[in-house]
Design a protein that fits this description.
Strand 4, helix 3 and strand 5 form a beta-alpha-beta unit. Helix content is 31%, strand content 24%. The strands form 2 sheets. It has a 9-stranded mixed sheet with strand order 9-8-7-10-6-1-4-5-11, with helices on both faces. Strands 2-3 form a two-stranded antiparallel sheet. The chain is α/β, with parallel strands linked by helices. The protein starts with a strand and ends in a 6-residue tail after the last helix. The protein is globular.
């Protein structure tokens, strides 16, 4: 059985300082994405860890990874190779695909068919476009079911057991057919770190690189603005006992009413 991880190598926005954001806001075009390193998103890292845990139960699983972008995504693919992913594919595209979910889903659907994948794991949304549409569009194109808020995966006989959890409920699903899994990582999963020997071996790993067709999109990014939401605060400059009593009477007691 083959499991495919589809991730987006997105710029590491944590590298930007406050002055960088201010300069980008004045220019109106946003920060230079090519000047930042490309990293896997938090959800995709959780998805990769779920795949590795599933392979520990069933060593026969074949793990593959695919991403769309430029050469800045190669370190992420080599890191997955060091962790034991058997096939890595980079779909080269110079276009801005932040708002081209349909095009991205089409490319991933082609990869899923070529890899004869039983499962395709994606993150819930990227930190850039934040469309949250790619997984649903991919499932529609493949004719597969799609499960969201995935936080657990294990091999169960000839199928898989998938654990989903959102703000309202936790559910277990037994899957015996191909499916798309939309992973949400709220900090409960961390991608393991490969050893130095594995990293050195992965530096020479053969990563398949393909050229994508030109993306056709009716949506283009014209301007970016940073939204700053500031919260007001009140300092209660009183002794601790009186301050706690005032905090309860004036602010907290009313919130406890049914």
């Amino acid at each position: 059985m083959n499991i495919l991880l589809a991730f987006k190598a997105e710029p590491d926005l944590s590298m930007l300082s406050e002055t960088d954001w201010q300069a980008s806001a004045r220019s109106g075009t946003g920060p230079g994405r090519t000047l930042m390193r490309a990293v896997m998103g938090n959800d995709e890292q959780g998805a990769a860890e779920l795949m590795l845990l599933a392979r520990e139960t069933n060593p026969a699983l074949e793990l593959s990874a695919v991403t769309i972008g430029d050469e800045r995504a190669l370190p992420g693919l080599r890191n997955l190779a060091a962790l034991g992913f058997s096939r890595q594919t980079l779909l080269l595209s110079p276009d801005d695909l932040r708002f081209s979910s349909t095009f991205v889903a089409e490319q991933l659907a082609t990869q899923a068919r070529e890899n004869t994948a039983q499962l395709v794991l994606l993150g819930s949304q990227s930190s850039e476009g934040q469309n949250g549409q790619t997984a649903w569009l991919l499932a529609e194109m493949l004719g597969w079911p799609c499960l969201s808020s995935v936080r657990g995966l294990r091999v169960d006989g000839d199928g898989f057991t998938v654990e989903c959890e959102d703000q309202h409920q936790r559910s277990l699903w037994h899957i015996d057919r191909p499916a798309v899994l939309r992973v949400s990582n709220r900090g409960q999963m961390a991608l393991r770190v490969p050893g130095m020997r594995a990293r050195l071996a992965a530096a020479k790993a053969d990563i398949e690189q393909r050229q994508c067709d030109a993306a056709v999109s009716s949506i283009s990014c014209l301007r970016l603005e940073r939204h700053i939401a500031r919260r007001s605060g009140i300092i209660i400059n009183e002794p601790a006992k009186q301050a706690a009593q005032r905090l309860w009477n004036d602010y907290l007691a009313q919130r406890m009413q049914p």
